[in-house]
Amino acid sequence: MGAATQIYWKDFIIKKSVHIIEYAILTMLMYRALRASGVKPQNAALGAIFVSALYGATDEYHQSFTPGREPRVRDIFFDIIGAILAIYGLWNWVDKLPKKIKSYFEKLEFV
What is the tally of helices (H) and strands (E) in the chain? Predict the structure, then answer.
């Protein structure tokens, strides 16, 4: 594998990781907002994932009008992965965190 190929893969991994992280954060905030407005946890989770996926799709569409940018369907999949991981993490990992870290999630009303 040449140096250019290695650089491409490093760039790819970094950019896709950012997609996952950004959309995980968006989903967590959307979930929190929906829960605060009285939506049941399952519906809030589905709604947050749906809104994040929709936003990802519209962002890719927007990129089709931006010079130097290309819309990619695969980016929407990375966005959805981030959204699903966020909900999975809130439901399954937060309880297993040390008390001090878990208390931050509680103070921020994520759980």
Answer: 4, 0
Q: How many CB atoms lie within 10 A of CB 70?
A: 9
Considering the domain boundaries, does residue 93 fall inside one?
yes
What CA–CA distance (Å, rounded) separates 7 from 110?
Answer: 37
Instruction: Give the residue numbers spanning the domain of 68.
Output: 18-107
Domain assignment of residue 76, yes or no: yes
CB atoms within 10 A of CB 106: 11
Model pTM score: 0.87
How many domains are contained in the chain?
A: 1
Averaged confidence pLDDT in the chain: 92
pLDDT 10s digits, 23-36: 999 999 999 999 99
